[in-house]
């Protein structure tokens, strides 16, 4: 049910996006602190909604549908914010593009495989990718201005965030390739099965 706790946590990630956008566009040190906090809280719900759903046996079709959508909306909005507010260097845009393209690729593969009644399980490496990616985006949303407001101006927060974003992009390429290979295997099997049926002599 949409009102189950795991689904409410998932919905909260979507609800957090307008607030995240508003706080980031204030372009103030404390606005950046708050934007980082909102993003981090939203990212943490991604862990707890699945954990609670499994432990309480509240796994639902609604949750399975909504969870990846909420994740992609949150990540996509954060990346667009960082790019639009010029919080990324020209080189920092490259891993951001890689991450966005991978999300589109995986969404397309999931849609194709769903038509074959085949799931695309999340790998351990993909979970690491998600963790590194969320830390990178939270760090970049905070930026050097938030670090200064918190008395941590000596830390190169933005540079650290971009380094983590590059690490996330590298993991993104690896996991994206794994998912693409899985999709191609199923597509090839489907074509071979269809060809065998078409070439079968009539009985």
Task: Give a description of the structure.
It contains 6 helices and no strands. By secondary structure, the protein is mostly helical. The protein is globular. The N and C termini lie far apart (48 Å). The mean pLDDT is 85.
Fold topology:
Elements: H1 5-25, H2 29-55, H3 61-84, H4 93-115, H5 124-149, H6 157-199
Give the SSE order as H and E letters: HHHHHH
Biggest beta-sheet profile: none
Q: List the uncertain runs.
A: none
Q: How far from one another are the termini? A: 48 Å
Rounded to an integer, what's the Rg over CA atoms? 20 Å
How many distinct helices?
Answer: 6
Give the proportion of residues in helices.
Answer: over 70%
Share of β-strand residues: under 5%
**Oligomerization state:** single chain
Give the total of beta strands. Answer: 0
Mean pLDDT: 85
SSE-based structural type: mainly alpha
**Mass-distribution shape:** globular
Can you tag this structure with a few keywords?
single chain, mainly alpha, 203 residues
């Amino acid at each position: 049910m949409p009102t189950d706790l795991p689904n409410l946590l998932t919905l909260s990630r979507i609800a957090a996006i307008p607030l995240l956008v508003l706080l980031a566009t204030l372009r103030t040190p404390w606005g950046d602190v708050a934007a980082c906090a909102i993003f981090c809280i939203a990212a943490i719900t991604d862990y707890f909604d699945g954990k609670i759903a499994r432990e309480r046996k509240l796994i639902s079709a609604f949750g399975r549908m909504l969870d990846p959508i909420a994740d992609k909306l949150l990540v996509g909005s954060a990346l667009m914010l960082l790019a639009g507010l010029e919080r990324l260097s020209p080189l920092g845009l490259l891993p951001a593009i890689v991450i966005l393209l991978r999300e589109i690729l995986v969404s397309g593969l999931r849609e194709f495989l769903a038509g074959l009644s085949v799931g695309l399980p999340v790998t351990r490496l993909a979970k690491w990718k998600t963790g590194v990616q969320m830390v990178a985006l939270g760090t970049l949303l905070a930026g050097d201005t938030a670090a200064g407001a918190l008395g941590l101006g000596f830390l190169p927060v933005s540079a650290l965030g971009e380094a983590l974003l590059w690490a996330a992009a590298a993991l993104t390429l690896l996991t994206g390739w794994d998912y693409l290979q899985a999709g191609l295997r199923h597509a090839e099997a489907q074509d071979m099965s269809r060809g065998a049926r078409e070439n079968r002599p009539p009985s």
